[in-house]
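User: Some background: our group keeps a shared notebook of sequences we're curious about, and every so often someone picks one and asks for a predicted structure to add to the entry. Today it's my turn. The entry only has the sequence so far, pasted here. Could you supply the structure so I can complete it?
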Amino acid sequence: MDTKHCSVDGWADAIPAPGPRGTATFDLTIRPADADPLPDDASDTVVSCTSAAAGIVHELLTGIQPGDLLRVTGTMLQPTTPGEPARLTADVLEVLDTALIPVLGEMVLDRYGDYVVIFDADTDTDQVPVFTASGQWVGLADNPDAITTLIDIYERVNGGDR
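Assistant: Of course. Here's the predicted structure to add to the notebook entry:
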């Protein structure tokens, strides 16, 4: 197998995922520095990355978001089968630039104790979706004043289970 120690700059393709035995994995999307001469339909290069270094794993699982520009330094393992992505074991991770935080317009999440409600000014209705803090659907309150009534009914029906 052909290995090489290198540094690669690219974008986090998705939220990094925990791997086996305290590792974390993520895909790094790489575009050539001078992409102008390439055809418009040229695909990006994707490198599958993993790390077992505790500090890198922590940063990957708590701080990295899709679209973050990263510099990953480590050992690159070339694929043995054509079409498979190269694999990079990261020894050093640098965040070169962070992705923009998406703005959801006039949507606001709010907590009501163990419940979460969504106020969306972009809709033409007063109804308010209500969930438990763990993401379980509670129901749709007719208006903001009806949220506590909906929560009370939910707790009576479900015996206070959230």
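Suggested note for the entry: The first strand starts at residue 3 and ends at 12. Strands lie at 3-12, 17-18, 24-30, 45-51, 69-77, 86-97, 107-112, 115-120, 128-132, 137-141.
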